[in-house]
Amino acid sequence: LEDVLESVAETHPTIERAGMSVARADGEALAARGGFDPVLSIRGLWSPIGYYDNGQVETQLRQPTPLWGASVYAGYRIGWGSYPPYRGGYQTLSGGELRAGVDIPLWRDGPIDARRAKIERTRLGVEAAQQRRDLALLAVQRAAARTYWSWVAAGLRRDVTRALLELAERRDVGLRELAAAGAVESMQLVDNRRLILDRTTRAIDAERRFQEAAIALSLYLRDDQLVPVVPDERQAPRSIAAPRALALPPIERDIEDAMHRRPDVIAAQTSRRAAAVQLRLARNQRAPAINLQSFVAKDLGEGPAQLRPVEWGAGVVFELPLALREARGAYRAARAELGAVDAELRQLRDQIAAELRAARVALETSRRAVALADAHVNVAHELAAAERTRLREGASDLLAVNLRELAVADAELARIDALATFQHALIDYRVALGSI
Prior knowledge:
Number of domains: 1
Order of helices and strands: HHEEEEHHHHEEHH
Number of strands: 6
CATH topology: Outer membrane efflux proteins (OEP)
CATH superfamily: Outer membrane efflux proteins (OEP)
CATH class: Mainly Alpha
Number of helices: 8
């Protein structure tokens, strides 16, 4: 079973697909961090025709920062030629002008802005994708484990039908000897031959079911080339361990453990944190934009004296969309998203409680079913042995022995089914808790 679960984790296409979702989320997180990449811009303008012959070249490096949404910039520009009075600001000394500045949002985009919100949401998106991958792994491993125990049970059922056939075949040898000596009627020999044919049919059907179970298991067992591997029948266990009495904790403790361990719950909680980030952003975007701006500049080289001093300036920019429909709509959408995630978490808790209660009931009833099946097998063996003794003493017939042997086989098959059902219930209980 450990080999199957390990193979699922390493080679199953569903897990590979979930891993690609994690990689995609990681790429989106990297793209979001690009919102704080420095931006280099270069602009040039030349006006060779006209009364004023001039030109300008300007380069600027702007760096957004996560510090209260502030951004800083530094640049260089140079202008040459003659300028009209209303464009005198484009003129520089011969060596150009160095300048730097800062833009600080005081309200909107201060505590949080779209760039920082996107980074946080995509980071949480990576965590959610990882949890969804773990959830997919848990679901596939559950299916793999249940398929494994079905394969084991199919192999044991095949063994029971083979043993039943071998009984009839061994009896056929003895009956032929007795018939040759005239000790039994030939009708008994024919009747036993009928039993052999009937039990051969049962054995063939059990073999078919075992092979089908092996093929189903191969979907969860792959080689290094990712090709499904049909397990060899020699790898099948020859028995299923009898269940031990389980000391289960109180159901309330199981529910709390599952709420802390299950990937679907953790993914939903992560989605809630992302929705809360979006709500914070939407609430902030309803505020007016009030930005404090400041710059300093210094011209270099030769030229007019009025351009030589260091320049410093500061200002305030106020902006407010009058209707605020975009901000109000985004706020409503964010609140709705948060409410939807809260509803999902409540549903998950109810679902987990139901799954755990059902799994605990299945564990207890299947364990009791195994105990009853054990008792049934013992009684059936005793009756079959007694009937065979009576046959040897001439007090019974082949029909009665066949019925007793079929009862033994049915009891053995029922015990195998009960053991497999217990293993399935144990898997479901562990998965309901968030592990396997």
